[in-house]
Amino acid sequence: MSCKAIKIILASISIFIGTPQRTAAQGHYNAWMRMTLSIPVRNKISTDVELQHRRQNNFGGSNMFDENLMYSFRTWIHYHYNQNMVFSVAPVACLYNYKMITDQSGVHAPPAREYRIAVAADIKRPLSPELSIANRTGLEHRMIQGTTAVLRARTRLGIKYAVNKHIKVGAYDELLLNVQGAGIQHLFDHNRMSAGAEYQFNQKLRMDIGYIHIVRLPQRAEQYVREQDLYLNLTYTLIR
After folding, report:
1. 3-class SS at 219?
2. Dist CA 238 CA 240 (whole Å)
């Protein structure tokens, strides 16, 4: 099966599941924050050290900074095949996941520890000097405390436009599927629709901000949850 056919199938699944009927009445509001230190190693190899923290609203409220949602530490190793293709592996990732607060019982639930190994490929196709299409496809082996290990596939397709040398804007759709370990009823994990902007302060410092709309089916739930997320990512690159 060609890559184009696979993308069409995944896009069709995303559209079909993107407006599910079994949706929980209460929405969810999150704030995602991430800091990344990027370190060039050789001409085509670089590494990232990533720290992330996510917050969520409390039950019955809409303040996205009320409660913990997740802490994580992850490292990436990137091989830059050329300027339009990058292969990545994350050999070490440790996450502390707090329960999504959809009822009062989740407010004081302790976090579950997760270890994750991931691989990914980023491919960019320029359409013009300012406009490009980008795809990121990957696999994650998730080992979560108290649950069966899950193999999750994800693919993100989007478009990016360079307003000038400092500012880029883009929009993406990403589909995540549990292909092993979660059962057929939870094949669909979640879908992300996002829009955001990137600001390059200088060669070293970049900021990404934006909005994500998520439709999620938690593994121990039968109803979909809708999330409204704001994100802020800061990336600092060590220049040799």
Report:
1. coil
2. 6
The answer to whether the pTM exceeds 0.85 is yes
- Tell me the C-alpha distance between 102 and 137, whole Å: 30
Residue 126 has pLDDT above 80, yes or no: yes
Beta carbons within 8 Å of 119's beta carbon, 6+ residues apart: 87, 88, 89, 90, 138, 139
Work out the number of other CB atoms within 10 angstroms of the CB of residue 57: 22
Task: Given CATH 2.40.160.40, say whether it is the number of domain 3-237.
Answer: yes
160 phi, psi to nearest 5 deg:
-135, 140
Residue 86 to residue 151: CA distance in whole angstroms: 22
Least confident of 14-28, 90-104, 130-144: 14-28
User: Which range scores top for mean pLDDT: 18-22, 96-100, 207-211?
Assistant: 207-211
Q: Where are the domains of the chain?
A: 3-237
For range 92-107, the mean pLDDT: 84
SS (H, E, C) 113-176: EEEEEEEEEEEEEECCCCEEEEEEEEEEEEEECCCCCEEEEEEEEEEEEECCCCEEEEEEEEEE
Residue 93: closest CA among 138, 58, 159: 138
- 168-205 burial, b at 16+ Cβ within 10 Å, e below that, comes to bebebbbbbbbeebbeeebebbbbbbbebebebeeeee
Let me know if 93 is exposed, middle or buried by CB neighbors in 10 A (0-12, 13-18, 19+): buried
